[in-house]
Amino acid sequence: MFSGIITDIGIVSVLNKDTDDWKVEIKTVLDANKISIGDSISCDGICLTVIEISHDSFIAQISSETRRVTNVNYWDLGYKVNLEKSLRVGDLLNGHFVQGHVDCHTEVSKIEKDGDSHKIRFILPKQLNQYITYKCSITINGISLTVNKVSKTFFEVNIVPHTWDNTNLSHISIGSRVNVEVDLIARYLEKLYTK
Q1: Which stretch of DSSP H or E encloses residue 172?
Q2: How far apart are CA 119 and CA 132, in angstroms?
Q3: Residue from 83, 79, 85 nearest 15 by CA
Q4: How do the pLDDT tens digits run along the chain, 195 residues long?
Q5: Rounded distance between C-alpha atoms, residue 139 and residue 169, angstroms
Q6: How far, CA to CA in Å, does 175 sit from each of 46, 71, 122?
Q7: Which of 22, 90, 132, 172 lies 20 to 30 Å from 73 when distance is taken between CA atoms?
Q8: What are residue 68's phi and psi, to 5 degrees?
């Protein structure tokens, strides 16, 4: 479980696609002494399991299911990845509950400066239409955000300067693919009321 508050922007330094389960090495300033084999780390919102650690990086495997659902097929060497270690009991929940179970990836359709902030518009995937409403929580590339505008074809978020400067959103452009995870409460409520 995560909170959607990014603590580092890692860099993809190795991406091995030679096996069914790809291996990715991500350079990070996260303290290696506080990372253990088997730990879960949110990488652009994807819950990945650490299988190796060095002093300035960690390695994780990427399954075929993860490749099917997320934006990892667009990653390359040098790709900047939002990172967050999993929550511990007693940690502050400054964002919202994020599972790291990405629902799908979607495309950036518009980026607009709005004073010191930025508005980013995304194409609304049809399968997420019932979960995304005005002022709901949403996770984009692992970042806890609030939907400020929604229509039948798009949704929009506002990015404050701190988030812009401390996540990989400042590196995206129109056409970039981002990971989306809807609010888990909305997902469970929908299941409850459609029985």
Answers
A1: none
A2: 17
A3: 79
A4: 888 899 999 999 999 998 888 999 999 999 988 999 999 999 999 999 999 999 999 999 999 999 999 999 999 999 999 999 987 665 666 667 788 899 999 999 999 999 999 999 999 999 999 999 999 999 999 999 999 999 999 999 999 999 999 999 999 999 999 999 998 776 666 665 665
A5: 12
A6: 20, 12, 9
A7: 132
A8: -70, -35
Structural contact between residues 177 and 169, judged by C-beta atoms closer than 8 angstroms: no
Alpha helices in the chain (DSSP H): 64-69, 161-166, 184-193
Q: What is the DSSP letter of 66?
A: H
Instruction: Report yes or no: 7 and 85 within 8 Å, Cβ to Cβ.
Output: yes
Structure tokens at 80: 């900047």
How many whole angstroms separate alpha carbon 9 and alpha carbon 7?
Answer: 7
Per DSSP, the residues of 65-107 read: HHHHHSSGGG--TT-EEEEEEPP-TT---SS--B-S---EEEE
Q: Closest by alpha carbon to 31, among 62, 55, 3, 9?
A: 55
Instruction: Quote the Cα angle for 96-97-102, to 5°.
Output: 110
Q: What is the pTM of this model?
A: 0.92
Q: How far apart are CA 132 and CA 176, in angstroms?
A: 20
Backbone angles phi, psi at 46, to 5 degrees: -95, 125
Please return the burial class of 76, using the count of CB atoms within 10 Å of its CB with bins 0-12, 13-18 and 19+: exposed
